[in-house]
Every structure is written in C-alpha cells, then in structure tokens.
From TrEMBL:
Keywords: Isomerase, Lyase, Multifunctional enzyme, Oxidoreductase. This is Protein CBR-ECH-8. The keyword Isomerase applies. One of its GO terms (biological process) is fatty acid beta-oxidation. One of its GO terms (cellular component) is peroxisome. The keyword Transcription regulation does not apply. GO terms for molecular function: (3S)-3-hydroxyacyl-CoA dehydrogenase (NAD+) activity; isomerase activity; lyase activity; NAD+ binding. It comes from Caenorhabditis briggsae. Residues 17-202 form the 3-hydroxyacyl-CoA dehydrogenase NAD binding domain. Residues 206-285 form the 3-hydroxyacyl-CoA dehydrogenase C-terminal domain. Coiled coil: none annotated.
Length: 312
C-alpha cells in the first residue's frame, strides 16, 4: 500500500507500561527488551505454560547482574488478564513526560487468527479505550484481526524478529484502519527500546518473511538437488555479511512459523518441509536445549551452531 504519507506526522501516546501476551519464543524476548529499557512489563501466559515461563525467567539469571536487576524490577509474570486493567496503578516516576495512564499490548500468542481475535475481544473488554494493541503476527491480515474490536484503529503490527531482545529491526505494520497515533506509538515504543522500526503495509508475510521464504526455498533446492549441507548454504550467505544464514534463522524461529506462513498464504511447500511438518519436527525452538542456549545467545556468548535443522 502506498498511503504511508498518512502516518508521517502523528503524535504518539506516551508509554508507561507494556503488556506482552504469550511468553514463548518471541514474547519473552519482547518482554526482555522492554524491561531493559525500564518499562514496567507484564507478561501474561496460560496456566499450563506458566511453569515454563518461570523456567525461562530462571534462565535469565545467567545474565549480567544489572540485567537481572532490571528484570526483577520491571517484569511481572501472570496468568491474570485483569492485571492489565489495573496497570496504571503500578506507580512510576521513571518518565517525566506526561503519561496517559495506559498500557500498550503486544500480543505474541500462537499464529492463529481465531485465537488472536478471541484475545483481542477479551482485551477489548478489559483494557482502557486509549490502549494500543500491537500484534507480533508474522503474516496474518491486520484488517481481519482488528475487525472484532469496537475501535479497530488501535491495532498495529509490531513485528519483532527472533531473538527479539537482540535483533534491531522491527516491522511496524499498518492496516486500512490503523490510526496514525497507533503507528506513531509503535514507532516511539521501538525507539524507546533502541530498535529500528520500519513502516510496512499490510500484505501477506510483510517484507522480511517474504525474502526469507525465497532464501529458504532456494536453500532447500541447493540441499536436495545439489547435495549441499545446511551449514554450507548458511556459510555462503553469512560470508556475504548476513548475521545468520536462512536455515539457522528457520531453525531458531521454528519451522512451525514457516508452516503457518506458507499455509496461510497458499505458498507451495517442498517435500522436505511437508515431511518435517508432519512429524512436528520444528527445530531447536521446541527443544529443551533451547532453555540452555537462549540465555547465552542473549548475552551474545554463543555463536549459532552451524546448519542444525533438527537435533532430535
Ligand atoms: P510460541 O509457540 O513459542 O509461543 C506462543 C506462546 O503464547 C506460548 O507460550 C503459549 O502458551 C502462549 N499463549 C497461547 N495462547 C495464549 C493466550 N490466550 N494467552 C496467553 N498466552 C497464550 O510462538 P512464537 O514463535 O513466540 O510466536 C508467537 C507469535 O509471534 C506468532 O504470531 C508468530 O507468528 C510471531 N512471530 C514468531 C517469530 C519466531 O521467530 N518464532 C518471529 C516473529 C513473529
């Protein structure tokens, strides 16, 4: 879409606290990024996942003392959505800008339209009208997602990349109804946590994942038609200056993300992809080892291992 001019001169809503819904691969990194920038951050998870989220929080303890202190001070993990309603009671004098007493939501639950719509419907009944709803969706249609809200103008895409506390780029996505204020607030939030926000229109898979899809398709061709090994393909790409190769990215992000992306958009999948999806072998994302590796990656201590597609 080329109506981006509408969004260039808007005022953002000053942010005080942030709620992240879903503490999985992305949610925990997003929550961490906000905590490090001294936002009061509420991470909401499902009951049966809470223990895992706590385990992840425990693994945070390998971080430097100053980072742990910020997490302890700023992060609250809960299953209680009602906490979002009272968020303005969490006193803060950290910002000397006038604050509307409001929370910004970034949802990072599973990539399912039905679930995200149910979540937004629920939040609409709980949160204040001024609250901006950000979605971390990788590919879903913002217009469809926001259609359940009384005021669809407050939905904006804030698409982080994994690991969200490290990767600088964030796609800020505007749908047909997204207000300029919501876009400006998303930009402001990204800047406050030292990210590089990029304005993107509402189209299938947005920008980066479209590119990643092409890289992955070609990487698989190299592997299955020409006998390259995954780490060899990635090495070629990183030799050109990319931070990570496409296969490492897919492995870390979870092959389920690409599965959703391709099936949602009707993009063709290779035999290899169909095979691993059927077996639900989603790469290191779903692996217990993730909990051990992740804190080290946060610290930049761990070089991503080369060419791991699965390690089950
Ligand atoms: P994940 O499966 O690792 O985590 C999702 C979390 O949401 C789980 O911990 C789950 O318990 C929680 N959850 C589900 N329903 C919930 C509810 N109603 N209330 C509270 N929590 C709930 O998923 P992941 O990979 O973190 O993806 C989340 C979103 O971020 C998806 O929309 C995905 O497309 C997007 N995304 C994923 C990226 C990746 O690299 N994995 C990159 C960028 C975006």
């Amino acid at each position: 879409p080329n109506n981006r001019g509408d969004h260039t001169n808007s005022k953002s809503i000053p942010l005080k606290s942030v709620a992240v819904i879903g503490g999985g691969t992305m949610g925990r990194g997003i929550a961490m990024a906000f905590c490090m920038a001294e936002f009061e951050t509420i991470l909401v998870e499902l009951n049966d996942q809470l223990e895992i989220t706590y385990a992840r929080e425990k693994s945070f303890k390998r971080l430097k003392d100053s980072k742990i202190e910020k997490l302890r001070k700023n992060l609250q993990i809960t299953t209680d959505f009602q906490k979002l309603q009272n968020c303005d009671l969490v006193g803060s004098s950290k910002y000397d800008v006038p604050c509307y007493e409001q929370v910004q939501i970034v949802e990072a639950v599973f990539e399912e339209m039905k679930l995200k719509k149910e979540l937004f419907t629920k939040l609409d009944g709980i949160c204040k009208t001024s609250c901006i709803f950000g979605t971390n969706t990788s590919s879903l249609d913002l217009d469809d997602m926001s259609s359940v809200l009384q005021n669809p103008t407050k939905v904006v895409g804030i698409h982080f990349f994994n690991p969200a506390n490290l990767i600088k780029m964030v796609e800020v996505i505007y749908g047909s109804h997204t207000s300029s204020e919501a876009v400006a607030t998303a930009f402001e939030a990204c800047r406050a946590i030292k990210k590089l926000p990029i304005l993107v229109g509402n189209c299938p898979a947005f920008v980066f994942n479209r590119l990643l899809g092409v890289y992955l398709n070609q990487s698989q061709k190299l592997m299955y038609e020409y006998g390259y090994l995954p780490h060899q393909v990635d090495k070629i790409v990183t030799s050109f200056g990319f931070l990570m190769g496409p296969l490492t990215v897919a492995d870390m992000n979870g092959l389920d993300v690409m599965e959703k992306l391709k099936s949602e958009n009707g993009w063709p999948a290779s035999d290899f992809e169909k095979e691993v999806w059927t077996q639900k072998r989603y790469g290191r994302k779903r692996d217990a080892i993730n909990f051990l590796l992740y804190p080290m990656m946060n610290e930049g201590l761990l070089c991503i291992e080369e060419g791991i597609i699965d390690h089950e």
